[in-house]
Amino acid sequence: QVQLVESGGGLVQAGGSLRLSCAASGRTFSINAMGWFRQAPGKEREFVATISWNGSTTRYVDSVKGRFTISRDNAKNTVYLQMNSLKPEDTAVYYCATSRGVMATTPQRYDYWGQGTQVTVSE
After folding, report:
1. Which residue from 97, 122, 121 is spatially nearest to 109, judged by alpha carbons?
2. CA dihedral over 107, 24, 82, 88, signed as positive or negative
3. What is the arithmetic mean of pLDDT over 2-16?
4. pLDDT at residue 27 above 80?
C-alpha cells in the first residue's frame, strides 16, 4: 500500500505561481516514476507531468511546457510541481500518482493516487 498526500493548492491570480507537494509513504518511493494529473469540472482526468525514478527525465503536456516543473526528492519521499505563469485554464483538482513502473502519460498506468488538491486561477 502507498499513501499519497497532496498539498499546496489554493486560489491565485492569473500570472501567479503555486508549488504543489505530494508526500508518499508506505512503500519504497524511489523505485517508481511519479506523475501529476488534473481534472477540471466536467472534463476527463488529464496528464500534466511525469518524472523518472531518479529525477533525470521529465515529460510534460504541451499546454504547461515552459511554465510547470516537476521534481522529486527521494530522501523526503516527495514529488513537487512548480507552477508559474498560471492561467485560468489551469484551474482543476491536481492529483499525484505512482506509476506501475516507468514514466507514463495515461492514468491507467498509475496505481496509487492522492486525494487531490484544488488549484483555482482567477482572471
Report:
1. 97
2. positive
3. 97
4. no
